[in-house]
């Protein structure tokens, strides 16, 4: 009988241990699910932040590109105006320079 009582105590202890392990595994599963949800939200937020930063960089690059194109256009306009002014001041020199350039281009083009 004493062996039956010891066996009964051991079985009850094993049942208690199994119940405690089941409870622990359940809590771990719940904690993992919460950690996944938190991680998912953080990744989603970081992706949104990265997309917004990329959009801002693209907008800034477009603005800088537009500014550069505008500056290049202004410089070209000023250069043409300066050339036009120089041609009006010295028309004979301009015609001779154009003839010289045409002659050189013709020689190079023949080869």
Describe the overall structure:
Helix content is 97%, strand content 0%. It has one domain (2-110). The chain contains two helices and no strands. The longest helix has 88 residues, at 2-89. It has helices at residues 2-89, 91-110. With 111 residues, it is mainly alpha-helical.
| Shape assignment | rod-shaped
How much of the sequence lies in strands comes to under 5%
* Average residue-wise pLDDT: 88
Q: Decide which structural class fits the backbone.
A: mainly alpha
What order do the helices and strands come in, and which of them pair?
Layout (H helix, E strand, L loop, with lengths): L1 H88 L1 H20 L1
Helix pairs in contact: 1-2
Keywords summarizing the entry:
111 residues, 97% helix, single chain
In short:
This protein is an all-alpha fold.
